[in-house]
Fold this sequence. Notes:
- The complex is a heterotrimer.
- Chain A is mostly helical.
- Chain A has 13 helices and no strands.
- The longest helix of chain A is centred in the C-terminal third of the chain and has 39 residues, at 225-263.
- Chain B is an all-alpha fold.
- Chain B has helices spanning 7-10, 30-43, 45-62, 64-67, 99-135, 137-151, 155-166, 170-197, 200-207, 212-249, 260-267, 276-303, 305-308.
- The model of chain B is unreliable at 1-29 (pLDDT under 50).
- By secondary structure, chain C is of the alpha+beta class.
- In chain C, the strands form 6 sheets. Chain C has a 7-stranded mixed sheet, with helices on both faces.
- In chain C, α15 packs antiparallel against α16.
- Chains in contact: A-B, A-C, B-C.
- Chains A and C meet through α2, α3, α5, α7 and α8 of A and α1, α4, β10, α7 and α13 of C.
Amino acid sequence: MGWFIAGRLLAAIPVLFGVSVVVFTLLHFAPGDVASVLAGPMASEAIKEAIRESLGLNRPLPVQFLKWLGNLLHGDFGTSLVYKRPVAEFIFEKFFNTALMAVSGALLACMIGITIGIFAASKAHSLFDRVTMAVTMVVGSTPLFWLGLILVLLFALTWRVFPATGMTSPVGGGGFLDVVRHLVLPAVAAAMPSAAIISRTARACMIETLGQNYIRVARAKGLRRNLILRKHAFRNALPPIATVCGLELAFLLTGVFFVEVVFAWPGLGNALYYAIIAHDIPTVQAAVLLIALSFVVINLAVDVLNAWLDPRIRVSTARQGGR
Amino acid sequence: MKGHSPDRAIVPADARGSASVGVTSGTRSGLRGLAGAWRAYRRDRSSLIALVFLLMVAGASLLAPAIAPHDPSDAVTFRHAAPMSEGLVLGADGDGRDVLSRLLWGGRISLMVAVLPTLLALALSLVIGIAAGYFGRWSDHVAMRILDMVFAFPLVLLAIVIASMLSPGILTVTVAIMVALTPYITRLVRTATQSVKGLPFIEAAHAAGAGELAIVTRYVLPNVLAPALVYATTLMGFMMVVGAGLSFLGLGTQPPDADWGVMVADGRAVLRKAPHVTIIPGVMIILVSLSFAFVGDGLRDALDPRRRHR
Amino acid sequence: MSNAFTNFRRLTLICLLAVAGILLGTARSPAHAQGTLIWALPAGASVLDPHVTCGWLSRGVTQQVFESFVQQDLSRLHDETPAPLVPRLAESWDISEDGRVYTFNLRSGVRFHDGTPFDAEAVKFNFDRFMDTEAPHFSELAQAYFMFAGGAADIESYRIVDAMTFEVTLKARNNEWIRSTLEDCPTLFFVSPAAIEEFGNDAIPLHPVGTGPFKFVEREEGVKIVLERNDDYWGRKAKLDQVIYRRLEEPATRLNALLAGEANLIQEPPWDEIEGLQEEGFVYSENRNPPWLWYLIFNFKNPTMQDVRVRKAINMAIDREGIVREITRNTATPAYGMLSRGTHAHDPDYQGLGYDPEGARQLLAEAGYPDGLEIDFDIPQYGYGELVEKWIQRDLKKVGITLNLNKMEWLAYLDKWNAGMPEELEMNEIGWGQQIPGWLGLIARCDRHPWDGSNVGWYCNPKADEFFKKALQAGDEAESAALYAQANDVVMGEDVAFAPLYHYYNPLVLHPSVKGFVNSTANWWDLSTVWIEE
């Protein structure tokens, strides 16, 4: 297993390198000029030239890239062109904020999804089952940003129970409860579609396991339904459910960008969007690399979790030697 | 793991429960096969309704120039965010534009964003996937390493990066979705190709002296196409949601054009006063995306003989 | 593992209870803590180094932290234009008879936020930063900014007279020199020399240390900027404890923040909501004399546009009253001349070319276009659509002009705009202005063609230039206003070089608890007079 993980991590390095080369190169061909952004609308050409000079933007592209890469290896993401401040000083905080929303959303989605899935499966083909499955079908197709707006309309503007913007109260905010209060609406918006998908998977897996012979035997032995559900069926249906949960987390890592915009959440999505508008290449670089890296890590974690939960997979992946 | 290929959540909601498609053994191409498939499809009521609904929406959108009551980007009333009334069946948005007309015209873009890039990705995937799966060796290696790199880019991120080079627009969204989907469909095509390759009738064709190209086009492609098409169809609904999301972020369709994502975004400014401006396009996104999922399900069952007789 | 299901259910229950607790326990947040103004900005403020910044948003922040020799009186109501100059770090100033030598008598006992005393040395240190290439903290960037529009081009020399007296000598008389140093691109604010020495030119934007009524606390990139009251301020101390600038780019998000009590002043509210907000008790504030305007620029290199009748016809074809009424929701007023309402040279009685589609059609026929003509129009692409441009397109259609809108992404647009119009393009547009009427010269003088200025339509009339030159040397404001009126008569009356559209009122919406706010004639505000009343 250790080798399996190490191998997968090593394999990610050339991927990340490729990603960074591509992003670095492409951004330099983006329309507009960083000097115009920084100098403002009416600045003269002399000002822009002075800016380009001071930022080293006049040097050849490969030189700029190599310098960037060298710094990166020393943990230096470069200096933000817009904020004139080392990217590393603020990008991790943004990343944390995004991850906070994504992880809370994914947790919420798992809890809601699995609960609904199990109940629906235990009452398969009942009215409850059919109604909830129809609802999950609809919710699963709902755009995150739209859901976010509806939640804001209802819970922030109409009933005023939760805040509409930001991650902390502007004044005296920042405490744990304060953050949680701000987190509720965006996390729910992010969680709902994922919960729908998870519940459908959970239901399908549970029905499949419930139909298997050993469950029938247990039932014939007269074991209580609840005991069967939790001791036998759930345990066996867990690996695919865990996989879906993990993959929903991977999706939400960037999926929450849509929610961030609605709630003015100070996350990576908003930061990346502003950075791109302003041609703040070092910030874009760092953000893209962070996301790609965590994406690779989560996908790897899902594979590992799966192998751990289900010995059959462990054997087969080991045999495949990686992917 | 049946029914949950990992594709599912990375291009997440995509599947809505239908990502995996088994390769059918035997070649059931040709008219007789299609007719049979249609008979099977017809039997599934929800899929049929979804198909009819989709066709209606597509038809109405295509006819937008003829049937839209107003110019979609011109103010028709000075009563901004006007409620539904005679002459303005669905009311007006914050800039006094007719919501119904915008919905019809916007449908063209939203549907196009759902269908076109997915089909392009499908075409690209068939080429890459079959080349990798059928010929194997270095073509397989090269293709898979490149796809690995694209895999490391979540779709949304990819779209943002592409938008920053091409500048925002429909082209950006199309390219982004196409690039992002290609690895997923390619992987399916590749696996399908590999399993078809080992089937007896391929060997028979070889023995009968058929050339590689003939085998690929006559035997491999038809067998790989069905599952790939089904997968692509189930993705279309999710792509509609993603495309709308990118427009919502300002990376997609640019004013004065509007797709349904832009309409939701425009509705924000009058959310309290006139929630219908935001709600209507959102509901359309949900319904159409749902319909794609149902059509995909129906297609899968119809094209899979094993399921057909269930 | 065997208990996974039970544990899972328990976890779910705990989480639900927690959510319920949060909901009940803290449902009511303190809407406005005592004395904090939360200002929702419509975009990000640029760096907080006033010497190397352009932009009204960052100028609004630096205004609170830094001070100059003088400042426009921002506490005056917007009806008095221009705001008179009042002393700040100079207690008084003398201007020599020939208008060239400025002697500033500096205020004693003033300290920067870091404790550094303010004196003539500190002033010289700041001047050296953009004037003296030999100085240890010389910044090429700052020099470029000050040469462009910061008044450095006018300076012949400067010197310390004594510890509390500083003298600046200009190359020639320029009545608007001192006001030009207060504009936003850049601003002659005094930065603590000790801070510049400590942090260097690159990092000083992260440590803005001035003498103003507010001190910089922190900046969270893309999220907020926090200032707090300077209790050691030399003058009348600010009333607010804190000012927080939040970056909320979406108009709808700013509105939500205001409604939910997460901001108590929003800039650029959604136009459609202003009326409703007032009905709900929010306070609307506008500056009816903004120092800038929105205008179309005609290209004098383009053969079609060289005919004054075409330029006149376009001016007459546009229904400006309709635009401000139906699109900007009366947050603007039509503009017919090129002198913005925020300057002393603005003439409210100026007539200009009014809405006259019939006359426009006639002029076009005379000009040889009885069947109409086609015109290319470069426009930047905004988030909210091109409502005004489409309105103009429709108006011009009525007189037979087909207007092709070439939309460009904002940055790409600016790059092209700054370079001046290529021959094949007929016109483009921009919204700009300054508190000094000399600004019109920046966009209309012969020597201000790109790259030496922003006369992007390549207009040139020496007669107008003569008035611009004289106005800068005029004896008093009345005389200079008269000269600018003459210049405007040449530029707009004879030559019709532009099509002014409207003066935008910079609308703001305030929570009713915000008191003492004055909407000044500038594009920035003095927040030291503001307080929050629960």
